[in-house]
Amino acid sequence: MKLKQRAQAGFTIIEMLIVVTILAMLTGILVPVLEDTQKAARDARRSADLKAVQTSLEAYKRVNGVYPNTSGAWQGDAPSFGGLGYDATGYIPGLVPNFMQALPKDPDSSIPVDDRGYFYRSDGIDYKFGAHKTPESFDAGNPFIDPSRPTTSWMVSTPGAYNW
Fold this sequence. Notes:
Blueprint: H1 13-64, E1 75-76, E2 117-122, E3 127-132, E4 153-157
Antiparallel strand pairs: 1-2, 2-3, 3-4
């Protein structure tokens, strides 16, 4: 008598466990890589914001003879710097709309909060603009590291405001 063999349909539990294990390992490898990529993208945006504001401030000075003045007070979008907005009445007076369409906002949607965000100070002759407690890397060769806040902030400034 001839016995018929039944064809097995589907996967065994061992095969499924192997596939799940491989997927878990790939996920464990990819998640940190993607997080690093997101941090690098946010920092690239912050450095672009610093350069854009610096260019706009120089254009403002060419037209007006001075930088937008805050009477030596720090202003920014974070609550501890005044919680000012991104339009013509924002944290850099007079820069919007003629020299920039809008003042920059941090690429991290949870910012501004507390004392984390963009800040600006000027006496008309010198200025300092920076990202406070938002940058995610502080590599030694970074040209934007704030010498007054080397582990928390990036900045652009005139020579006279470098150490504010």
